[in-house]
């Protein structure tokens, strides 16, 4: 197939042929031709109009105009900034066709840690794709293996002096769901669940102080102090926070809890609707004054967890879906969907919703001042 440059050259050649033929014919028309013989001179008939060269020339001209005025193939530039101690692909700046999908993957080299990858200044996963719908920049950086600003050891995460404690939750079994008079249909059928792997679970909801120490900003609506729960965050915000913590620590340390883990940890061995008197254990719409409160002020459950009920609701890992009546082992919920699961109600929730089995749903893009989260970690 002839490329764009070759097409232009062919069109220009045909146009020149047209112009030459037309010029010759015009000259012949304007200069009379005579024939010598006896008698008066006789003018010869004009030559026929050269329709074929003209039509070819007009067509070539139209093609040339289209080629000259047509849009060129649009390309965008992917700028790559790889810092010392990181490696991966692509390794250098390059231009790509509009709409092209570019795969990237980066790792920290031996002796380095805390890999951080940013796409147009937004923190992203260490590997993924970039759609070339505009110019983009990938910046990859690492810190020394021991990050003095963020550490984790034996259930304690510390970021710039802010401590966040996690509790090791043992294995066990429980009845998930409820058939109490206040129960909603999606809390049934009640079914047996086995938790076969110990896991770490945040003693409190993630605080504004911890979020600020990691992310350098505070999205909360109630900006009242380091010990208040962070809120007004989406599911994606949670994952960006967790991804950054994991990158800074150089491993896959933290995640969101599953719905089953959350209810099991919240119940802490109890079988009723709550693990204690509602006013003693939870901030709800009858005692919170329409706002969040510092974490850890109410009574904890038997696992030593605070505010699993009330204060702010908590985002879980699962997509939202109906329960099965069959016994479950370490369930993780549906693998896809349009809605996510949340638990724990919040300061705006009425008492009938502030229960261990109560389920909530939300869109991944949804955020509000009564929705936060807490960290979980697989025990390794």
Mean pLDDT: 86
Topology as a string of helices (H) and strands (E): HEEHEEEEEEEEEEEEEEHHHHEEEEEE
- The low-confidence runs, each spanning 5 or more residues with pLDDT under 50, are none
DSSP summary: helix tally: 6
What is the molecular shape? Answer: elongated
Strand order of the largest sheet: 5-3-10-7-8
The total strand number stands at 22
| Rg, alpha carbons | 36 Å
Structural class label? alpha+beta
Question: Helicity, in percent?
Answer: 10-25%
Main beta sheet, described? 5 strands, mixed
Q: Strand percentage, roughly?
A: 25-35%
- First-last Cα distance: 59 Å
Describe this structure in words.
Helices cover 22% and strands 28% of the residues. By secondary structure, the chain is of the alpha+beta class. Strands 5-3-10-7-8 form a 5-stranded mixed beta sheet. Helix 1 (4-30) runs antiparallel to helix 2. The longest helix has 27 residues, at 4-30. The two termini are 59 Å apart. The mean pLDDT is 86.
Strand and helix layout:
Blueprint: H1 4-30, E1 34-35, E2 42-43, H2 51-69, E3 75-82, E4 86-89, E5 94-97, E6 101-108, E7 112-119, E8 122-124, E9 127-131, E10 136-144, E11 150-153, E12 156-159, E13 162-169, E14 172-176, E15 191-195, E16 199-202, H3 208-215, H4 235-249, H5 259-267, H6 278-281, E17 313-319, E18 328-329, E19 340-343, E20 359-362, E21 371-372, E22 376-378
Parallel strand pairs: 3-10, 15-18, 17-21
Antiparallel strand pairs: 1-2, 3-5, 4-6, 6-9, 7-8, 7-10, 11-12, 12-13, 13-16, 14-15, 16-22, 17-19, 19-20
Helix pairs in contact: 1-2
């Amino acid at each position: 197939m002839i490329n764009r440059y070759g097409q232009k050259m062919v069109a220009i050649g045909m146009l020149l042929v047209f112009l030459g033929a037309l010029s010759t014919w015009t000259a012949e028309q304007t200069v009379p031709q005579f024939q010598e013989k006896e008698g008066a001179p006789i003018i010869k008939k004009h030559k026929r109009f050269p329709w074929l060269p003209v039509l070819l020339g007009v067509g070539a001209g139209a093609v040339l105009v289209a080629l000259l005025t047509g849009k060129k193939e649009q390309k965008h530039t992917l700028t790559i900034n790889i810092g010392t101690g990181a490696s991966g692909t692509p390794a250098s700046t390059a231009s790509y066709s509009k709409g092209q999908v570019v795969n990237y993957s980066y790792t920290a080299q031996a002796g380095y840690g805390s890999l951080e990858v940013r796409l147009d200044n937004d923190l992203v996963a260490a590997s993924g794709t970039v759609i070339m719908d505009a110019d983009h920049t990938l910046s990859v950086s690492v810190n020394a293996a021991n990050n003095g600003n963020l550490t984790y050891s034996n259930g304690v995460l510390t970021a710039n002096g802010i401590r966040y404690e996690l509790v090791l939750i043992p294995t066990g079994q429980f009845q998930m769901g409820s058939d109490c008079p206040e129960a909603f249909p999606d809390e049934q059928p009640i079914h047996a669940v086995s938790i076969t792997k110990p896991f770490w679970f945040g003693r409190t909801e993630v605080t504004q102080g911890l979020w600020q120490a990691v992310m350098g900003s505070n999205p909360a609506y109630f900006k009242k102090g380091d010990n208040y729960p962070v809120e007004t965050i989406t599911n994606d915000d949670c994952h960006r926070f967790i991804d950054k913590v994991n990158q800074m620590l150089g491993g896959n340390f933290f995640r969101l809890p599953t719905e089953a883990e959350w209810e099991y940890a919240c119940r802490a061995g109890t079988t009723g609707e709550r693990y204690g008197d509602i006013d003693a254990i939870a901030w709800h719409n009858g005692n919170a004054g329409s706002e969040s409160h510092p974490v850890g002020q109410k009574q904890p459950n038997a696992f030593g967890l605070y505010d699993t009920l009330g204060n702010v609701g908590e985002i879980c890992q699962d997509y939202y879906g109906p329960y099965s009546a069959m016994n479950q082992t370490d369930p993780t919920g549906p693998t896809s969907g349009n809605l996510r699961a949340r638990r724990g109600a919040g300061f705006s929730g009425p008492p009938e919703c502030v229960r261990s089995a109560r389920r909530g749903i939300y869109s991944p893009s949804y955020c509000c001042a009564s929705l936060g989260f807490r960290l979980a970690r697989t025990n390794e």
